[in-house]
Design a protein that fits this description.
Blueprint (H helix, E strand, L loop, with lengths): L1 H21 L6 H22 L7 H24 L1
Helix pairs in contact: 1-2, 1-3, 2-3
Length: 82
């Protein structure tokens, strides 16, 4: 259980860092993007089974979490502009 939580945090951190590189201008700095990545990982973990997708490898988890974090950064950026 603890190992799963640590893996989730590490994958979320990588995803947040990657999302910050992909979505320039809407980042929250390194720590903020890591938090966004962890939330994006949770979002991906909830949404991918609903879509019938299975991301069971570490790389698949990183890709899913990065996509979730990018989506989250884009949504936050759109909300900031309004």
């Amino acid at each position: 259980m603890l190992e799963d939580a640590i893996a989730w945090i590490v994958i979320g951190g990588i995803a947040g860092w990657l999302a910050g590189l992909i979505v320039e201008g809407y980042g929250f700095g390194l720590i903020g993007n890591i938090v966004i990545g962890i939330i994006g990982a949770a979002l991906a973990g909830l949404v991918t089974p609903l879509l019938g997708l299975s991301i069971e490898t570490k790389l698949g988890n990183i890709i899913g979490a990065t996509l979730g974090a990018v989506l989250l950064l884009l949504l936050i950026g759109a909300a900031r502009r309004r």
